[in-house]
Amino acid sequence: MVRLSDTKKTLKSLEKSTGLVAWRQGQLRGKDIWHVLKYPYETKEDFVTLVGISPPGAKIATGPASAYIIAARLFGKAPSRTVKLDMGIQDISISPRARIVFTPDPQQLTKGDITIGSSKGKVFPLEKSK
Is the terminal CB of the chain with fewer CB neighbours within 10 Å at N or C? Predict the structure, then answer.
């Protein structure tokens, strides 16, 4: 997640990128959460989460399917292959055409090309039923 003091620097970095894929996924305290992956789409350093700020070129849609509607290559080079992100309890695949697929992974059994979530047991640990 981007700290407020780093916002301008981060936005400039995104604008200078040679490619950008982004999707809006929910809100936090009424502010949109954007997940952004920049070219070359290969490492954790290519991933940014923005809260309350839209990435350059983004369009807003709301509702349950908004992440699917908005997922788009905003500009520049597309991924050359499907990129898989491991975000803890869900996995995300982004195709070269910016098609996005969300796959639940509540047991955190899979790994992606880029791991964003914490290791097993450290992301929203659920209490066992008694």
Answer: C
